[in-house]
Amino acid sequence: MRLLGLDPGLRHTGWGIIEAEGNTLRHLANGAISSDGDLSLSERLVQLYDGISKVILDWQPAEAAVEETFVNKNPVSTLKLGQARGISLLVPSLNGLPVEEYAPNKIKKSVVGAGHAGKEQIHAMVGMLLPGCNIANEHAADALAVAICHAHYASSNRNLRKATMMAGRAP
């Protein structure tokens, strides 16, 4: 199954595409979509929308996963990040992809084994879990970590959705 991981940010939204087959993970591509800080907020969000749309069109993932964001100290930054995160949730959904969200600690625990691992540890483990992967930048590394986390939880999430739907149809 081809999976898209997204690490939302207004300046840089990281993306990573992996394939998961059983317990085997394979790196396909990664990068970051950057917005132009000289543009208005709405124009920057369009840049993120267009960039994520292109990644989906080019790589045709089956599912997507997005890192949840917690409140920062600066409320204006938090609001802008939330808007970029909204684009990261919206675009895959508009393209018919199921979208899951994961807390940063769950991603870290899934990739490194510890919920409070540092960025260096996460990036090192991403490289180990996806051998031969040339990681474009820190945003792409974080997005690949999101995709890896989703690969670990995707089948459980699908089974839970299916069971919930079946329970809703029961007489």
TrEMBL record:
<keyword id="KW-0234">DNA repair</keyword>
<dbReference type="InterPro" id="IPR002176">
    <property type="entry name" value="X-over_junc_endoDNase_RuvC"/>
</dbReference>
<feature type="binding site">
    <location>
        <position position="67"/>
    </location>
    <ligand>
        <name>Mg(2+) 2</name>
    </ligand>
</feature>
<keyword id="KW-0233">DNA recombination</keyword>
<feature type="active site">
    <location>
        <position position="139"/>
    </location>
</feature>
<comment type="similarity">
    <text>Belongs to the RuvC family.</text>
</comment>
<dbReference type="InterPro" id="IPR036397">
    <property type="entry name" value="RNaseH_sf"/>
</dbReference>
<dbReference type="GO" id="GO:0016787">
    <property type="term" value="F:hydrolase activity"/>
</dbReference>
<feature type="binding site">
    <location>
        <position position="139"/>
    </location>
    <ligand>
        <name>Mg(2+) 1</name>
    </ligand>
</feature>
<comment type="subunit">
    <text>Homodimer which binds Holliday junction (HJ) DNA. The HJ becomes 2-fold symmetrical on binding to RuvC with unstacked arms; it has a different conformation from HJ DNA in complex with RuvA. In the full resolvosome a probable DNA-RuvA(4)-RuvB(12)-RuvC(2) complex forms which resolves the HJ.</text>
</comment>
<protein>
    <recommendedName>
        <fullName>Crossover junction endodeoxyribonuclease RuvC</fullName>
        <ecNumber>3.1.21.10</ecNumber>
    </recommendedName>
</protein>
<comment type="function">
    <text>The RuvA-RuvB-RuvC complex processes Holliday junction (HJ) DNA during genetic recombination and DNA repair. Endonuclease that resolves HJ intermediates. Cleaves cruciform DNA by making single-stranded nicks across the HJ at symmetrical positions within the homologous arms, yielding a 5'-phosphate and a 3'-hydroxyl group; requires a central core of homology in the junction. The consensus cleavage sequence is 5'-(A/T)TT(C/G)-3'. Cleavage occurs on the 3'-side of the TT dinucleotide at the point of strand exchange.</text>
</comment>
<keyword id="KW-0963">Cytoplasm</keyword>
<keyword id="KW-0479">Metal-binding</keyword>
<feature type="active site">
    <location>
        <position position="7"/>
    </location>
</feature>
<dbReference type="Pfam" id="PF02075">
    <property type="entry name" value="RuvC"/>
</dbReference>
<keyword id="KW-0255">Endonuclease</keyword>
<keyword id="KW-0227">DNA damage</keyword>
<keyword id="KW-0540">Nuclease</keyword>
<dbReference type="InterPro" id="IPR012337">
    <property type="entry name" value="RNaseH-like_sf"/>
</dbReference>
<feature type="active site">
    <location>
        <position position="67"/>
    </location>
</feature>
<keyword id="KW-0238">DNA-binding</keyword>
<keyword id="KW-0460">Magnesium</keyword>
<feature type="binding site">
    <location>
        <position position="7"/>
    </location>
    <ligand>
        <name>Mg(2+) 1</name>
    </ligand>
</feature>
<keyword id="KW-0378">Hydrolase</keyword>
